[in-house]
C-alpha cells in the first residue's frame, strides 16, 4: 500500500480467488483526462477462479475497495 495505491488479494474461506487494486490516476505518468476529477482512482478486479465467477465476489470486493479508498 501507498498513499496512491491499494492492492488486495480476494479470498473466500481463506483461499485466494482473485486480485483487486485501486490506483490514484495522478500516478499514471500522463496528464489526467479533463473529464476525470482530481482524486479519481483506476480500479481493476480479477476473479481468476472460474468456480467463483458470477457469484458476487467481484461486486463485494469492489464495494470493499471503494469503502477503503474513500473512507
Q: How do the SSEs run, as a string of H and E?
A: EEEH
Protein structure class: alpha+beta
Helix coverage percent: 10-25%
Strand runs, count: 3
Summarize the structure.
The chain is of the alpha+beta class. It has one helix and three strands, in the order E-E-E-H. It is elongated and about 40 Å long.
Task: Give keywords.
single chain, 71 residues, alpha+beta, three-stranded antiparallel sheet, 1 helix, 3 strands
Describe this structure in words.
The protein has 71 residues and is α+β, with helices and mostly antiparallel strands. A three-stranded antiparallel beta sheet has the order 1-2-3, with helices on one face. The two termini are 15 Å apart. The model has no long low-confidence stretch (mean pLDDT 90).
Please outline the helices and strands.
Layout: E1 5-12, E2 15-24, E3 41-47, H1 57-69
Antiparallel strand pairs: 1-2, 2-3
Amino acid at each position: 500500500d501507498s498513499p496512491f495505491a491499494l492492492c488486495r488479494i480476494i479470498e473466500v474461506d481463506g483461499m485466494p480467488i482473485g486480485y483487486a487494486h485501486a490506483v490514484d490516476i495522478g500516478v499514471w505518468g500522463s496528464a489526467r483526462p479533463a473529464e476525470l476529477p482530481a482524486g479519481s482512482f483506476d480500479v481493476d478486479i480479477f476473479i481468476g477462479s472460474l468456480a467463483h465467477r458470477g457469484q458476487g465476489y467481484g461486486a463485494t470486493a469492489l464495494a470493499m475497495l471503494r469503502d477503503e479508498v474513500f473512507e
